[in-house]
Design goal:
The protein is an alpha/beta fold and 288 residues long. The chain has nine helices and ten strands. InterPro entries: IolE/XylAMocC-like (IPR050312), Xyl_isomerase-like_sf (IPR036237), Xyl_isomerase-like_TIM-brl (IPR013022).
Length: 288
């Protein structure tokens, strides 16, 4: 997610009265594919606040088994409370495995509620480019502290990258600082594959370098024929239509300890709900 410092307000968006047929059967995973495909709900950031239950019902029908939430205007649980959200997820046959959130505000409460409903992760989605490498070192220590709070509650803490941490700064990659100065017993990482590629880096090389540290990933494809540039606008496209070789990368990710595979759609070629539907059809058929 890019610069998610505050929730994007509803603007326009899709009228949710459209009827979409279930594609769950068509997306039934086969051996060697993703057993439980997840969706980052930020993909439907404009539609979700209008009708959370209706949107989530469609997501389930598309063959998603897991969801990763984020903090919108009504918090991580979209006005249902943590127990109400879990109850609704259960009724749809889905599970909330993680959420992006602000770890600097009411984090003890967030960790306790997440643990109470069986979530696995709370995740920092964005810290922004820092002025000095020492600033990244200070953030690594903050991650350790947040990780300790999560561990106390029986869940895990993780950091989700953008391109800036995979871009050289004063001869060093900030991502290396995060990896090396966080306690592996407290902090995991969510690799946003799109942003690693956008930074001109090889996701597989990083997965191998830090085996077992990247436990979640964002699957987000990138427009073909456009060279990565610093500060580029988001060029995400429907998974399977872009330039990223997910068959190869996800196979390596599985070998290197990846556990959660989560779709994130940030830019749209058609209605957002249709984009995530097509993402699910492609990925639930992909073998690797």
């Amino acid at each position: 997610m890019y610069k998610r410092k505050e929730f994007l307000r509803v603007s326009g968006g899709l009228a949710l009265g459209l009827a979409f047929g279930s594609v769950a059967e068509a997306c039934s995973p086969s051996k060697g594919s993703i057993a439980r495909l997840g969706l980052q709900l930020y993909s439907l950031r404009d539609d979700l606040p209008k009708d959370p239950k209706g949107v989530l019902k469609q997501v389930a029908a598309f063959g998603y088994k897991d969801v990763e939430s984020f903090e919108g205007a009504e918090g991580m649980f979209w006005g249902m409370g943590h127990k109400g959200f879990k109850q609704y997820m259960d009724s749809l046959g889905m599970q909330i495995v993680s959420s992006h959130c602000d770890y600097k505000k009411d984090f003890e409460k967030k960790a306790a509620e997440a643990a109470e409903i069986g979530m696995s992760y709370l995740i920092c989605p964005w810290v922004g480019p820092q002025k000095t490498l020492d600033d990244y070192k200070k953030l690594a220590e903050e991650f350790n502290q947040a990780g300790a709070i999560c561990k106390k509650n029986g869940i895990r803490f993780a950091y989700h990258n953008h391109d800036y941490s995979f871009t050289l700064q004063d001869g060093q990659y900030p991502q290396d600082i995060f990896m090396e100065q966080t306690d592996k017993s407290l902090v995991d990482f969510e690799m946003d594959i799109y942003w690693v590629v956008t930074a001109g880096q090889d996701p597989i090389a990083w997965l191998k370098k830090y085996n077992g540290r990247f436990r979640l990933c964002h699957i987000k494809d990138r427009k073909k024929g456009v060279a990565p540039t610093k500060g580029e606008p988001n060029l995400s496209v429907i998974v399977g239509t872009g330039s990223i070789d997910f068959k190869k990368i996800l196979a390596a990710a599985r070998t290197e300890g990846m556990k959660h595979y989560i779709v994130e759609q940030e830019a749209y070629e058609k209605a957002p709900i249709e984009c995530v539907k097509e993402d699910a059809i492609y990925l639930n058929k992909l073998t690797f």
